[in-house]
Amino acid sequence: MIAFLLACGAAPSSSVQQQLAARPLQLTRHGSCRMDCRAIDRGEVERVLRVGTLDPERTRHDGACPSYAIEGRGTDGH
């Protein structure tokens, strides 16, 4: 299972994924390190962001910068 928390500037629901697909993926050094530790490649991240599921239980709207949790399975089934 691959999960992402995305913050700031995205709209709720499926439009989150539409907005993400319209922008180039930018990874932090920490995010790249976590991906390396879990053997997750950039293609898997892009796929989950495109076809994953928005998890409302882990999505936060409690501040000026909301965070959206998008989850999905990688190509290896995890």
Provide the fold topology.
Layout: E1 2-7, H1 15-21, H2 29-37, H3 42-51, E2 53-54, E3 67-72
Antiparallel strand pairs: 1-3, 2-3
Helix pairs in contact: 1-3
Describe the structure.
This protein has 78 residues and is α+β, with helices and mostly antiparallel strands. Helices cover 33% and strands 18% of the residues. The protein has a three-stranded antiparallel β-sheet, with helices on one face. The model has no long low-confidence stretch (mean pLDDT 78).
Name the quaternary structure. Answer: single chain
| Topology order in helix (H) and strand (E) letters | EHHHEE
Q: Beta-strand level of the residues, as a percent range?
A: 15-25%
Strand order of the largest sheet: 1-3-2
**Uncertain runs:** none
Helix content: 25-40%
Structural class comes to: alpha+beta
Q: For the report, how would you describe the main beta sheet?
A: 3 strands, antiparallel
Q: Please report the total strand number as a whole number.
A: 3
How would you describe the shape? globular
Distance between the termini: 4 Å
Provide mean pLDDT, rounded: 78
Tell me the radius of gyration. Answer: 12 Å
**DSSP helix count?**
3
Briefly say what this structure is.
This protein is of the alpha+beta class and 78 residues long. It has helices spanning 15-21, 29-37, 42-51, and strands at residues 2-7, 53-54, 67-72.
Question: Which features characterize this protein?
Answer:
3 helices; 3-stranded antiparallel sheet; 3 strands; 78 residues; globular; alpha+beta
